[in-house]
Amino acid sequence: MITEQIRAHGTSVKLNKPAGGRQMTLGRKLxxxxxVEVDAILAEPIMDYxxxxxxxxxxxxxxxxxxxxxxxxxxxxxxxxAMERLSDASxxxxxxxxxxxxxxxxxxxxxxxxARRRVSEIQAQLLEGPVRxxxxxxxxxxxxxxxxxxxxxxxxxxxxVLAMAKHVSSANLDYMELISExxxxxxxxxxxxxxxxxxxxxxxxxxxxxxxxxxxxIKQTKYKGLFPCxxxxxxxxxxxENGFVDHEQAxxxxxxxxxxxxxxxxxxxxxxxxxxxxxxxxxQPREQKMTLSAVGKLIGYTKERVRQIQNRALTxxxxxxxxxxxxxxxxxx
Length: 333
Description:
Blueprint: H1 2-6, H2 32-43, H3 60-65, H4 79-85, H5 102-128, H6 133-156, H7 158-165, H8 175-192, H9 201-226, E1 229-232, E2 237-240, H10 247-262, H11 269-278, H12 292-299, H13 303-327
Helix pairs in contact: 5-6, 7-8, 7-9, 8-9, 11-13, 12-13
């Protein structure tokens, strides 16, 4: 039971291992890997969550996790075969999937936001006071729990992205990019959905996905007008139509390397490591591209955690690049 796991005060009490998470012992010191994970979480902004009055009721945690009926297991066996078969949105066909009832949907979103709330509370506590093993491990437990529940919600609703893609004219859009943008919109919708409003998640998510498709279409139209390039899937970077690498690309790469060397983007050591493994910034040929999974095995993280670290680092890099070019003087002929 989750109450026994979280409220254990013994020096050698072991907590049950959550799905996709870690097994924790409250009494010992933090391991090096746990310390790195704690530092990474504390480096992030305080985790946001959607408040529900149920959270303030007595014994809310037991009611949400111990007394709630079990949830079904999402079925995503169809997803990857569907991605391999389809080349555009017009070929999408309805896909059977395990769906949540309205009550089950409320339960899983309350559990998800309760877990995020606990992470945010412990984050604030650790940022203001000493970093002790017990609250650190509790934060790691709830962090894993929130990621596990978030993944489940997404898996239950993956078909929404495919269904909404049918309503979009993808003549000027790459199908896989369309689906990728829809999946990102689905993730954002999970984080922002408020069950207290009384609506089904599908109603909220479909609107968010369609808006993301619309923004992508506008962005692609503007981009293609400014930069007539094609995407080289082998090199994993855009190249000019004539196939030759532009000197400006090399200059941008040098700028990125300079920012990394001087750490003007305030990247953590972990973020720098992930970027150097993921992207060939030194232009050294590799026998095989470093995937998220491969990087995760090297540094001891899951694929999803590496993706989060990479995205956070890229956001910092873009901001640093923008600041660098905004402050640079323009040469006028």
